[in-house]
Design brief:
Mean pLDDT: 88
Low-confidence stretches: none
Number of strands: 5
Strand order of the largest sheet: 2-1-5-4-3
Radius of gyration: 13 Å
Shape: globular
Order of helices and strands: EEHHEEE
Distance between the termini: 40 Å
Number of domains: 1
Length: 92
């Protein structure tokens, strides 16, 4: 079973561990509240996966046709999850 741990930037001081949720399908992943919140922005473009080579992959939220991106979470066991591979797009 795959799981995602919510990404919290290092400058945020938290007293508890970031939320971790298990999922088996893309649909379940996209229904997780801390994931689903990202696609409410009008410039939201898509979710993608950064680096499938390591045991940990990143779930990325892309905006402005991929010209802006943020790490949503750190995922494990996502070999069967069908999302585009993340590739940075640079503003012209």
């Amino acid at each position: 079973m795959a799981k995602i741990r919510r990404h919290v930037p290092s400058f945020v001081d938290m007293d508890e561990e970031p939320e971790t949720v298990e999922f088996t399908t893309v649909e379940e992943l996209l229904e997780i509240p801390f994931v689903n919140d990202w696609n409410r922005d009008e410039d939201f473009f898509r979710f993608s996966i950064g680096s499938r080579k390591n045991r940990i992959s990143l779930l990325m939220a892309e905006f402005d046709k991929g010209k802006a991106w943020y790490v949503v979470g750190h995922m494990e066991n996502v070999n069967d999850i069908e999302l585009p591979d993340w590739k940075p797009v640079y503003k012209e």
